[in-house]
Each structure stands twice: as C-alpha cells, then as structure tokens.
Amino acid sequence: MQNKNRNILLFSLLTLSLVLLLLLNVSLGSVSIPIKDVFNNLIGGNSSKETWDYIIINYRLPKAMTAILVGMGLAISGLLMQTLFRNPLAGPDVLGLSSGASLGVATVILGAGFLPPVLASVLLSSYGIILASSLGSFLVLLAVLSVSQSLRNTMAILIIGLMFGSLTNAIVGTLTYFSSAEQLQKFTFWSLGNLGNLSWSSIVILSVFVAIGLALSLLNIKPLNALLLGENYARSLGMNYKKSRMLIILATSILTGSITAFAGPIAFIGLAVPHIAKLVFQTSNHTVLFWSTLLLGATIMLICDSISQLSGTDITLPINAVTSMFGAPIVIWLLLRKRKMMN
Amino acid sequence: MENKIILQASKISIGYILKKERNIIASNIDLSLEKGKLIALIGANGIGKSTLLRTLTGIQKPLSGNVCLNEQDIHKLDSLLLAQNLSVVLTEKLPPSNLTVWELIALGRQPYTNWIGTLTNNDMAKINEAIELTQIEHLISKRHYEISDGQLQIVLIARALAQDTPLIILDEPTTHLDLLHKVVLFKLLKKLTQETGKCILFSTHDIDMAIQLSDEMIIMTPENTLQDQPCNLILKGSFDTLFQDEHIVFDSEKGKFLIS
C-alpha cells in the first residue's frame, strides 16, 4: 500500500500549497499587502491598515474565490469529458458550450446597435451579459443533448459539439465584421476572460452552480471508472450507460456554462489540469482523480491569476493569455513524455 | 433436483432490423447452457457467431423467440441483476488509461459495490480468488498496457471471474495467441468450469482444440445451429458441413480438418 501513503502525502502537500497560494494571491497586486496582514484578515481579524481591509474584502478575496471556483469547475468538467469521450484532447470547450456562451455575448454586445436604446442599455449591463452567456451555452447544450439522445456513438456527439462550436464561431465572426470599434473592444475584453469583476452576490450564485455540477460529478465516479474499460464492458458491469452519459454531459454543461457566463471563456484549464493530475498521481481511478483534479484546478488557477496581476504594477494581463501560455507548453510536454498513456 | 440450466434460448431468430426490414442471419436456434460445462461456439467467418453472442448476452434482442436467464427473460432483467449473473470477455481493445492489472480486475466487483465503489472484505476475497485461480500474482501491479496480449486475455478472464457470475461468455479469446498460449488458455477455461462449477461459453476458430477440450459444442452452419457433445457431432457428420469447400475435409478418426 505504498501508493496510499504517497497519495496522502500528495494530498496534504496540495492542500497546504493551496492555502499558501491563496494568501500569496491576496497579498499580491498593485498594492502589496504583507502576508501576515492577509492572514489576520482572513481568520476574521483586521490587518494593520483599514484600506488594506477594504481592498481584501472588496477586491482581492472575491477575485481569489472566483479563481478557485473557476479552476475547480473547469478542471473537473475536463476530466469528465476526457473519460466519457475516451479522448485525451477533450475538454469542456469541445461540446461547443464556450462557443455558445460567446455567441450569446456577441449577440448582445455586437447586436446592441440594432436594438432600441432602452433595451440595449439593459442588455449591456453586466447582468445582461451573464444572462446572454448562460442562455447561449444552455441553448447549445440543449441542441447537443437532443442530438445525443438519438445517437449511440459517443464520438459522433464529440464531432457534433465541435461543429456547433465552429458554427457559433462563424456567426460571431460575421457579427464582429459588422460592428463598431467600441463594440468590438468590449467583446474582445469579455473573450479575454476576467476573474475580478464579480460581486459577492454573484460569487454566491456561481458557487451554487459549481457545487451542483461537482455534486453531479461525484455521483458519477463509479460509472466513470467503469468507462475506463470502454462502453461495452461498462454496460456488462451493470452501468446504465444512457443515464450516466446524460448526467455527465449535464454536469459539464452546468460547470462550463455558469463559469463562462461569469468569468468569460477561459482556455486550457479544462484540458491541461486533468492531465497534470493523472501524471502526478499516476492513476486512472476517479475516486483519487476527482479530488486531485479539484485541488490542482484551484491551485493552478490561483497561480495563473497571481501571474496575471504583475505585482507592484497597475497592469493586469488578460487571464486567458496566462492560462494559454501556461497550459499549451504543459500539454505539449505531456504528449511527448507520456506517449504510451495517450495512445 | 436443482435446475442446472443457467441460460436457455428457445426458437430464437437472430439478425438485424435495417430500415424496417428484418435481416435474419440464423433462425430456429435452441440452446441451453448448463452449470459446469465448457461450451465452444464454432462456425465459418460471417456466419453470425458474434450476433449470436450479442443476442445471448442481451446486447441485442432476438428477432423472435426469447432468451431466458434463470427462467427470466433477459431483456426484462434489471441491468445490475444481469451483471451479477453474466460476465463477458470481449475482443475490443481497452481505451487508453493508467489502470493497473489489479484495478482492472477490481472493476469486476462493480455490480456489488456501493454508489462510490468501495471494496469490502468480501470483494477483496473475490478479487484475490480470481487472481489465484488464474495465477497472475506477478502481474497485478503492472499497468494494463505493459503486458502481452496473452497475459491481458488472462487478466480479462480474471476480471470476469471477480464479477463472480455463474455464466461467462468469451468472444474469440484465443485469437492473436500462439499455440502455447492457446493451450494455456483452453486448459484454464477447462479448469475453471471443473473447479468453480461455472458455465463458460466461448467462440473460437481453433476447432481441433475445442473438440478435444470442450464438454459441448455449438456448430453454426448456413442450414442450422446444433448443440451437442463433440463425439456425437463427429458421429452425426456435422463438421463436414461447416466449411462449404471441397478442399477442406474433416477426418472423423483424427478429429481434425485436412486439406486435400
């Protein structure tokens, strides 16, 4: 049972680094706050300056919480997709959900010019954008689900997801062609991803959705393990394939849809984190992978967010650029190192 | 007296429904699979062996007639109950994963475990028993992609054993194996039926070996599908009709095919 001890050690290290990174993440930014003060504030006390308290409660902590929720949710939905589609390159964006969200937001931002001014201003508020994005990914989800009902082949669903993705991207492309520079800028900012704009009430809503998605995933750990043997063996083990597939797709959609709605389409976390978890923990057992992917997702998202803040300056890099710069080399390196596991 | 029949097919027709047209591959098949029997299914390529196995395992419905497991229609059985009575070893490749041989065998316990798949002491005992019976103790900590085809075939049989079902159905378990490993596998199947009282049905193209080792055989020919003991089938001359080719002749004294 050497493995068990190794896993316990790894889990403790991960939890510890998550806590440390949370402190570090809150302390870094345009104004540096000493870690000691951050710690005092987070355990319910006060830091030595009132402005620091204000910054932590209203800016830094909400952003860190969003990063943790986004990292956990996207990483888990990536894990679910990779096992369900038996494809190491599957991620939450493959079902076309992110593209659906983009379409919703593009329609609102870029199409606002065609609407009466009163309606346009309502739609362009931050709630309007969240609503549009959720609606977009939900509609793509409904389309994918209704098609998947009549298809036995899981690969076909993957391809249909990709097709929905290109279709929505094409519509977004057409919309951008006809829009003004100002509208284009607004849409581009949304598509770069943003963790920092959420109020505490939005975070509560987001965490409810993420919690539902994670709970659904947890219920599917056993079927996911059975799926490691392929569809037919999984059925022969008494698994209700259609029902489980539906639940897994639903869980991914809830996670990706809600996260994209609140934080924009965030790349690579869903694809890269499950691979890192599989590499670090050397297992395919989803009981272990679920928790390790959850912790690693939160940790890596916090690291990316800390990098994007560029400590000591007023500049904040777009989070999507950081996750891509972080994620792409990791995936390439993994493919080269673990050729055997991948194919 | 205890009922020895585990699975019974009565007057079934097998095949597919394509564009509302019934495409019958074979019909009027009567089979019964009994406890403790090693049963070989043979027939030429394309005769419908896989379709028959798919029908017997409940993956597809017979076009007519019914398949009963413990006297209950297999398509009305709960999927968990079916998994506790029937395990399979398939020809398909396993998808890529990090599973170790031990974990792969342990997955055979899924029909018995709780919602998150916790293994109890009883589950552990069944897993160890399966590993002991198949003598693969030296493989259990290896990854499933690190072992040879022959070893993997035996590991998959161990997984089916861990599933602890009275009936195991294997689809062409001896393809891709050399003579030595074929013999090892056949002997293992024979030993399992004798020691555990399970019924094992397998399809194969190694007819000579099947004649020597199996208790009963099912022969599929274009005309009919017969189930009997190998010596009776030889007496009836059933093997002569197996391949419709004048160059392949069955020598009933040697119990093997000759090429003229």
Oligomeric state of the chains present here? heterodimer
Q: Roughly how many Å apart are the termini of chain A?
A: 28 Å
Greatest contact pair?
A-B, 30 and 31 residues
Structural class by helix and strand composition of chain A: mainly alpha
Q: Average pLDDT value of chain B?
A: 91
Are there runs of chain B of 5+ residues with pLDDT below 50, and where? none
Largest sheet of chain A: none
| Outline of chain A | globular
Summarize the biggest pleated sheet of chain B.
Answer: 6 strands, mixed
| Strand portion of chain B | 25-35%
Radius of gyration of chain B: 19 Å
Number of strands of chain A: 0
**SS-derived structural category of chain B:** alpha/beta
SSE run of chain A: HHHHHHHHHHHHHHHH
Give the strand tally of chain B: 12
Query: Count the helices of chain B. How many?
Result: 8
> How much helix, percentage-wise, in residues of chain A?
over 70%
Distance between the termini of chain B: 50 Å
Write a structural description.
- The complex is a heterodimer of chains A (343) and B (260).
- The model of chain A has no long low-confidence stretch (mean pLDDT 85).
- Chain A is 77% helix and 0% strand.
- Chain A starts with a helix and ends with a helix.
- Chain A is globular and about 65 Å long.
- Chain A is mostly helical.
- Chain A is built from 16 helices and no strands.
- With 260 residues, chain B is α/β, with parallel strands linked by helices.
- The mean pLDDT of chain B is 91.
- Chain B is globular, with a radius of gyration of 19 Å.
- In chain B, helix 4 (121-134) packs antiparallel against helix 5 (149-162).
- In chain B, the strands form three sheets. Chain B has a six-stranded mixed beta sheet with strand order 6-7-8-3-9-10, sandwiched between helices. In chain B, strands 2-1-4-5 form a four-stranded antiparallel beta sheet, covered by helices on one side. Chain B has a two-stranded antiparallel sheet with strand order 11-12.
- Chain B contains eight helices and twelve strands.
- At the A-B interface, helix 10, helix 11 and helix 16 of A face helix 2 and strand 6 of B.
